[in-house]
Amino acid sequence: MVSDDPVVPDRRRAAKLASLPLSAAGRAAAGFGRRLTGQSAEEVSAANRERMAEQLFEVLGTLKGGAMKLGQALSVFEAALPDDMAAPYREALVKLQEEAPPMPAATVHRVLDQQFGIRWRERFTSFDDQPAAAASIGQVHRGVWHDGREVAIKVQYPGAGPALMADLNQLSRFARLYGMVTPGLEIKPLIEEIRERVVDELDYRKEADAQRAFATAFANDPDFLVPAVVASAPKVVIGEWIEGTPLRTIISDGTQHDRNRAGELLATMTFAGPARAGYLHADPHPGNYRLTADGRLGVLDFGAVKALPDGLPEFIGEAIRMVIEGRADDALIALRQHRFLQPHIVVDAQEIIDYLLPILEPLVLPRFQFTRAWLKEQAARLTNPRGPAMRFGRQVNLPPEYVMIHRVFLGAIGILCQLRAEAPYATITEEWLPGYAE
Question: What CA–CA distance (Å, rounded) separates 278 from 199?
């Protein structure tokens, strides 16, 4: 019997995921036929890529678990997609960040019975059975706590753990197909990173602890709003409800003032979170942020975090400073000491500057505006198989302790480019990134 729970592994989910490589094979065969009729290989490849993107996002967007989590991770790189692909699928990508098929009310009630006892309703003045938002492993309901506070009740889908692992195992086997949609982005390491942090994300008590740390660190802050935790259990976390305009709306319809404000605060939180709360918010996508009416950045969803009790590693700031100042020999020594370059790898020190300095342009200018065009230019430079940047990049080793930090920085840059946000990023970095200040 097939389960009614939305993320329990079943044949329907497996069939949807398995349809991706089968469809790709069919498109390849059809493409061969079109080439015989005179279409160029480039035309056929572009057409296949568009159809692959359309199906990929459609499948990922209708599933939860690992499929939706991968879709959310891919969505922040939308700004780097070629123009002929970005426009048709921009809306589909954004929808992945906050929308998903709902879990039935009866299932929600059953989870709350298990987590808080069958009299859980007595804790609420009201509880809305219709979900206000849905994510990869849980959905959010709105309610009023017994003391009158409006609250967000995040309820984990039954079977979320097995579904996540089943999805990720299957998705990793199809990793090469995603290269058709996101050229140059290595999907397998991204899936492995998601797999490694799944265990922590499934325990909502850990999420509640991280949220409490952020809420305490940013209490009464004029720039940030982190909802306080009201109650928590292994499969449910209840926090204060916060109003605000979702970043997805600001990306599509916001004023330039709001774009700049959101971008400046997002960049600040990326660095300030570890410095003030001892955690890096490690799930940067627009669905996790709101811009409040008083101009603060509301931050949501603390399931994916990296504990950094001493803040971000000083080496990151020190290395950035070396590159900006053109100290190539110092940078080479530092990269070797911190295992970014293995002892047997032979490189010219100037290659480090040539590789990194264009990416660090936002920190060289007093103010910088992130744009899709800038990100596309960087992506093209770094992924050009005949270019020196890609040759050098292949020789760089990313130590395990830096993998999540690297992904978070990339994700934040992706959002800033979607926002087209202008701000004094050099000043923000100097204030909050250890080792960067002169």
Answer: 20
Find where tokens 């970043």 sit: 247
Question: What strand order describes the sheet that includes 236-240?
Answer: 124-134, 138-145, 150-156, 236-240, 229-233
Amino acid type, 6: P
Q: How far apart (Å, rounded) are the C-alpha atoms in residues 294 and 129?
A: 30
The closest of 282, 277, 207 to 238, measured between CA atoms, is 207
Q: Can you tell me the distance from the alpha carbon of 376 to that of 347, in angstroms, rounded to the nearest whole number?
A: 26
Q: What DSSP string runs through 87-127? A: HHHHHHHHHHTT--PPPPHHHHHHHHHHHH-TTGGGGEEEE
For residue 329, the surrounding DSSP H or E stretch is helix 328-337
3-class state of residue 306 by DSSP: strand
pLDDT, tens digit, 9 for 90 and up, residues 91-132: 555 555 445 567 899 999 999 999 999 999 999 999 999 999
Q: What is the pLDDT of residues 369-415, one digit of tens each?
A: 999 999 989 988 988 888 999 889 889 988 888 988 998 998 899 99
- Contact call for residues 94 and 289 (beta carbons, < 8 A): no
How far is Cα 104 from Cα 130, in angstroms, rounded to an integer? 9
Q: Where are the domains of the chain?
A: 1-202, 244-438
- Asked whether the beta carbons of 240 and 230 are under 8 A apart, the reply is yes
d(CA 342, CA 326) in angstroms, rounded, equals 22
> Tens of pLDDT along 257-312?
999 999 999 999 999 999 999 999 998 888 899 999 999 999 999 988 999 999 99
Strand partners, 305: 281
Strand partners, 290: 246, 298
Say how far apart CA 438 and CA 433 lie, in whole Å: 11
* Tokens (6 digits) for 320: 């950035």
Q: Which two tokens stand for residue 393?
A: 């990049």
- In 10 A of CB 45, how many CB atoms? 13
> Which two structure tokens, joined as six digits, stand for 97?
């960040």
The average confidence (pLDDT) of the chain is 81
How many residues in the chain?
438
**Interior/surface letters 351-369, b for 16+ CB within 10 angstroms, e for the rest:** bbbebbeebbebbeeeebb
Q: Could you tell me the maximum CA-CA distance found in the chain, to the nearest angstrom? A: 71
Whole-angstrom Cα distance, residue 293 to residue 155?
27
Tell me the helices (H) and strands (E) count for the chain, helix number first.
Answer: 18, 13
